[in-house]
Write a structure and sequence with these properties.
Number of helices: 5
Helix content: 10-25%
Shape: globular
CATH class: Mainly Beta
Strand content: 25-35%
Order of helices and strands: HHEEEEEHEHHEEEEEE
Bound molecules: flavin mononucleotide
Number of strands: 12
Largest sheet: 7 strands, antiparallel
CATH topology: Pnp Oxidase, Chain A
Length: 211
C-alpha cells in the first residue's frame, strides 16, 4: 500500500483514523488519574504520553479537543493542576481500555472498570493501585496545537513511585518486569519484551555493519 496526502484524505473516515492512529507504532499505555475539587475521581486511558526532558523532569501528553465533548480529565486538571500517570500492566488492559467510555461525570471509572483509587501522601490526585509504575504530576504549561484543537499538556513530576527492583544501579527501568503494556492504534494492546541494550552511541564506536 502506498498513499499520498490526497488519497489519505479520501479514505473512509474510520479507516483513515485507524491507519493514522496506528502508523506511529507502539505507544505507551497509561491511565491518567484526576480528582475534581468536588472530590469526584476520574481515570482514563491515554496513549500519547511522551518524555519532554529530565531536568526538570517533564512529561507531556496530548489532550483531544475539549469543545463539544466533555473531557473530565482536562476539567479536573484545570481545576487544581494535579494528575497521576500510571503504566498499565498487561493483566488490566481490558479494564484500562473501558475507561475510555464516555460516562457521566458523577460515575467514577474506577468503580465502573474495577480499578482501585490509591492516595499516596498528600497528593491530591488518585493513583491506580493495580499499576506498579506511577507518577504524580503537576501541570506546568498547556500548548495549543491550533490546526486541530488538541493541546499538549506539560507536567512536572512531583512524585515517582516504582518498585525498587524495577530500576538497575544505572537508573534504567526494566519495563517487562512489571508487564507494562503498549498500544497500537486505538484498540490493540501489546506486551513488551526487551530485545537488546546498547551503550551510549559514540561515533568512533559504531560497529562495522558492512561485514
Ligand atoms: C487506546 C486509547 C488511547 C487513548 N489516548 C488518548 C490520548 O492520548 N489523548 C486523549 O485526549 N484521549 C485519548 N483517548 C480517549 C480517552 O480515553 C477518552 O476520551 C476518555 O473518555 C477521556 O475520559 P474523560 O472524559 O474522563 O477525561 C484514548 C482512548 C483509547 C481507547
Amino acid at each position: 500500500m502506498q498513499l499520498n496526502k490526497v488519497e489519505i484524505q479520501k479514505l473512509e473516515h474510520k479507516k483513515r483514523l485507524n491507519i493514522i492512529n496506528s502508523i506511529t507504532g507502539i505507544k505507551p499505555a497509561n491511565l491518567i488519574g484526576t480528582k475534581s475539587n468536588a472530590d469526584e475521581p476520574n481515570v482514563a486511558i491515554f496513549s500519547s504520553v511522551v518524555h519532554l526532558g529530565s531536568n526538570p523532569a517533564l512529561i507531556g501528553f496530548i489532550m483531544r479537543p475539549t469543545g463539544e465533548v466533555p473531557r473530565h480529565t482536562y476539567e479536573n486538571i484545570k481545576e487544581n493542576g494535579f494528575y497521576t500517570i500510571n503504566h498499565v500492566p498487561s493483566v488490566i488492559v481490558n479494564r484500562a481500555h473501558y475507561t475510555s467510555a464516555k460516562v457521566n461525570r458523577s460515575v467514577s471509572e474506577f468503580d465502573r472498570c474495577g480499578l482501585t483509587e490509591e492516595y499516596i501522601g498528600n497528593f491530591h490526585a488518585p493513583f491506580v493501585k493495580e499499576c506498579h509504575i506511577k507518577m504524580g504530576m503537576k501541570l506546568i504549561d498547556e500548548i495549543p496545537i491550533k490546526i486541530n484543537g488538541t493541546i499538549m499538556m506539560v507536567g512536572e513530576i512531583q512524585e515517582l513511585i516504582l518498585p525498587d527492583r524495577a530500576v538497575d544501579e544505572k537508573g534504567y527501568i526494566d519495563l517487562s518486569l512489571f508487564n507494562s503494556s503498549g498500544i497500537g492504534g486505538l484498540n490493540t494492546y501489546y506486551s513488551v519484551a526487551p530485545i537488546a541494550s546498547f551503550p551510549y552511541a559514540r561515533p568512533e564506536e559504531i560497529p562495522d555493519f558492512s561485514k
